[in-house]
Amino acid sequence: MRSAEFDREEVLRSAMEVFISKGYAKTSMQDLKSATGLHPGSIYCAFTNKRGLLLAALDQYGVESQTSFEAHFEGQSSTLSALKGYLASVVDECEREEIKDCLLQKSLSELSQQDEEVESVISGLMGKWRHAIKLKLEQAQKQGEIADERDCNEIAEFLVMGIYGIRTFSHTNPPKGTLTRLADQLFDYVQKESP
């Protein structure tokens, strides 16, 4: 039997969109076939089952999110200015007419109590993201943009919590400017002089 040829990244992006839009439980194999262009047999052959496709999509989401995060800092002389730009991009994404959930957030709220492996994958991806933020904060600290006595790990944890709070709160359709104000408050916390 000949193995199916397809663009794996494109298939995973398409699957991500369906899982984000419909949720894992409500996504049918027909939905995945329509989105990816792959027949169920090809999906099963490449990913074992729908759950395997979700796990692969989560991994791809992690790679793409990390690449996007790092892109905000490339060529920037001020790490904090780049971080402020990153927070603005989160707000911009949340304020678009069609709000896009985060695949990690959606999967965590739907599956974490039911699937330890999915929960572990999501926890690992969030840990990598938190660590990437911490490294940027340490870089800002070395540049003198963050006070030396501040704990970059604690700030990173606060930022992750705050960003996910903004993403969740955006679903309540707050008045224009609210999410920007909240992101500014997060950024103010990063800049404050003492813990």
Automatic annotation (TrEMBL):
Entry keyword annotation includes DNA-binding: yes
PROSITE patterns named among the record's database cross-references: HTH_TETR_1, HTH_TETR_2
InterPro entries given in the database record: DNA-bd_HTH_TetR-type_CS, Homeodomain-like_sf, HTH_TetR, Tet_transcr_reg_TetR-rel_C_sf, TetR_C
Domain HTH tetR-type span(s) in chain numbering: 5-65
Alphabetic keyword roster: DNA-binding, Transcription, Transcription regulation
GO-annotated molecular function: DNA binding
DNA-binding region positions on the chain: 28-47
Record's keyword annotation contains Membrane: no
Domain of life according to the entry: Bacteria
Xref: Pfam families: TetR_C_13, TetR_N
Protein name: TetR family transcriptional regulator
Originating species: Vibrio penaeicida
